[in-house]
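thought: fold this chain, then report.
action: predict
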Amino acid sequence: MAQFSSRIWREFPQRYRLEASKFKKSGKTYYPPRDIDPTNGDTENEIVRLPDTGKVVTYTVIRVAPSQWGDQSPYALAVVEPTDGTRVMVQMTDCDVEEVKIGMEVRLEFRRIQTEAHSGVLSYGHKAVPKWF
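observation:
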């Protein structure tokens, strides 16, 4: 059986299926999922899947990356708002960092995020791909 870090193991559902918490009282949705609504303390929620399309709300370009992502720099990290209004922070991919723009339409795709240290364990999650692909 493969060995996974405890953090990756806990995050499998939300990473693989874009699962979020939708609270009954406020109707707000949070990603990653939360147990308590920070606005009113509500604990009644349901797990929902986020849409896989949206737009870039804001972004930054990482030009000097941490060692584990050094071979990918420069790269863009974006806050993407899927069509339901929730916000997700993801890496942009399949485009030049100079092409990333606020309002850009994107699709959230499941991709390899990183390889963990010397163990070689692969981590997967979602990245944003421009909709022209």
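thought: worth noting. The chain has a mean pLDDT of 85.
final: tokens above.
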